[in-house]
Design goal:
The chain is mostly helical. It has five helices and five strands, in the order βαβααββααβ. The protein starts with 6 loop residues before the first strand and ends in a 10-residue tail after the last strand. The model is unreliable at 1-14 (pLDDT under 50).
Length: 165
């Protein structure tokens, strides 16, 4: 690296950075007579802007994908008849399915402790959880059996979802 102190020789061949550097050179902002030199602070700002733009572009791409995924999820919920449930009821019911284990006598079962620990329910208060659970029980989407300990519920098959809508 030659030239004046505090300057860096521009050698990166990135299109965005190169075009910005050319604009800086045309404005005469370089620190010496060498048109390939740019003040270090300016180079840092240009590189930071280029990297930031690339990161933002990647974030936008991820957000767009997330939006499409949410659309697909919404359509699946409608297809299964879950759109008749409110958000908390849906989240709790899906957490029951996510934590279900197969039981020979009762089909699929899950405990409220495991369901409450599900990441989508971290912010749901205990009273809200139990109100939503009571509504799921009333609709037959979660079933309490006498042969199961307290806090353990059976999850009926897909036929129960037909009653949601």
């Amino acid at each position: 690296m030659g030239g004046a102190r505090g300057s860096l020789r521009v050698a990166w061949d990135g299109n965005n950075v190169r075009s910005q550097m050319q604009g800086i050179r045309k404005k005469g902002l370089h620190s010496s007579g060498d048109p390939g030199e740019v003040p270090a602070g300016t180079l840092h700002a240009v590189v930071s802007a280029a990297v930031s733009k690339r990161v933002m572009s990647k974030k936008m791409s991820i957000l767009i994908q997330l939006a499409h995924l949410r659309d697909v999820l919404h359509q699946m919920e409608q297809d299964l008849g879950l759109d008749g449930l409110n958000r908390k009821e849906r989240d709790i019911l899906l957490a029951f399915y996510a934590n279900a284990t197969e039981d020979t006598a009762h089909g699929y079962i899950s405990s409220t402790d495991r369901v409450r620990a599900h990441p989508t329910l971290e912010t749901v208060s205990q009273p809200t959880f139990h109100r939503a659970l009571r509504r799921l029980l009333e609709r037959g989407l979660v079933v309490r059996h006498d042969g199961l300990p307290a806090g353990i519920y059976a999850i009926p098959g897909g036929e129960a979802l037909a009653s949601v809508a």
